[in-house]
């Protein structure tokens, strides 16, 4: 009986899109830039999930957690499993964080990590059969802020770098932001994320430069935004103001505000809310020509 129950659970997990197997790839060989130590938390990496039938699309996933922890399951691994069912190669980013004690990592370390993650995907495009024009970034909550930072602070790479990966462009081709932290400015800032990322007394210039709604240009990637009207943690105005900035800049953008859902719902297999937002996203991906 126990054997059959375990077998049933395995089937459920596979059908629900919960990722099973991954490859861990450290972002840097040896010590990472600006490292504070030599523990596991000092070594950022990707968990790469390959679909059975890849379609060339890939997504770099940034889990949330207020820059003090990482929701690696329902905003990471399980999301990767669902993307795999669409034929999308997914890479969950384990970036460096503050650990909630103000002695951990702060800006610009997180931006270094997400840029490196995107460069690594581009570097591996040929080996993994990825389309270099269809590599996107996805983020939840504070991970959405990190993803939006990548979309507004990308660079073309250093053509003179000794490390081949550092020569790669880190601009994402599209962004998917789920209940994202966007602004570092009051009154809509998520205070905990700002303190963990920037400390308690950041300069006004730094606050503005890391407020996504202030940094949008016509070259910002096309963006999908989704949040809930009753989010009491990260106000919906974060998504709304970013959408308006994209709209005014002439960037293709899609904003979806659910009636209910609160904050942090992520990907929970079998739940109606998960079925709702993933269906909306799937249609957007098709409309953008990213899915057949």
Structural overview:
The protein has 292 residues and is α/β, with parallel strands linked by helices. It has a single domain, classed as Alpha/Beta hydrolase fold, catalytic domain (Rossmann fold, 3-Layer(aba) Sandwich), CATH 3.40.50. 34% of the residues lie in helices and 14% in strands. The protein contains nine helices and eight strands. It has helices at 2-16, 73-85, 109-123, 125-128, 142-152, 191-198, 204-209, 237-248, 272-287; strands at 23-26, 45-49, 58-62, 89-94, 135-140, 175-178, 223-228, 253-258. Helix 3 packs across helix 5. The radius of gyration is 18 Å and the shape is globular.
Helix content: 25-40%
Provide the number of structural domains.
1
What percentage of amino acids are in beta strands? Answer: 5-15%
- The CATH superfamily appears as Alpha/Beta hydrolase fold, catalytic domain
How many distinct helices?
9
Unreliable spans: 1-16
Shape: globular
The H/E string reads HEEEHEHHEHEHHEHEH
Main beta-sheet strand count, sense and barrel state: 8 strands, mixed
Tell me the CATH topology: Rossmann fold
What's the average pLDDT? Answer: 93
* Termini Cα gap: 42 Å
Annotated CATH architecture: 3-Layer(aba) Sandwich
């Amino acid at each position: 009986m126990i054997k059959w129950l375990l077998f049933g659970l395995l089937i459920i997990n596979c059908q629900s899109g919960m990722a099973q197997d991954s490859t861990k790839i450290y972002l840097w060989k040896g010590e990472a830039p600006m490292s504070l130590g030599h523990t596991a938390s000092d070594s950022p990496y990707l968990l790469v999930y390959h679909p059975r039938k890849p379609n060339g699309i890939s997504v770099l996933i940034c889990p949330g957690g207020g820059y003090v922890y990482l929701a690696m399951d329902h905003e990471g691994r399980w999301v990767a499993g669902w993307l795999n069912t669409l034929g999308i190669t997914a890479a969950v980013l384990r970036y460096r964080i503050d650990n909630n004690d103000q002695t951990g990592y702060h800006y610009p370390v997180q931006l270094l990590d997400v840029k490196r993650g995107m460069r690594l995907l581009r570097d591996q495009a040929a080996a993994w059969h990825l389309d270099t024009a269809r590599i996107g970034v996805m983020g939840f909550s504070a991970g959405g802020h990190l993803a939006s930072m990548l979309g507004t602070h990308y660079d073309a790479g250093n053509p003179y770098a000794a490390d081949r990966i550092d020569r790669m462009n880190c601009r994402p081709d599209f962004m998917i932001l789920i209940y994202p932290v966007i602004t570092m400015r009051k009154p809509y800032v998520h205070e905990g994320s700002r303190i963990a990322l920037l400390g308690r007394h950041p300069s006004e210039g730094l606050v503005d430069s890391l407020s996504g709604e202030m940094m949008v240009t016509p070259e910002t990637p096309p963006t999908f935004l989704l949040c809930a009207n009753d989010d009491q943690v990260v106000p919906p105005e974060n998504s709304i103001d970013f959408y308006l900035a994209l709209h005014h800049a002439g960037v293709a953008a899609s904003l979806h505000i659910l009636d209910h859902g609160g904050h942090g719902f992520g990907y929970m297999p079998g739940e109606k809310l998960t079925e709702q937002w993933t269906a909306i996203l799937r249609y957007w991906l098709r409309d953008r020509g990213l899915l057949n």
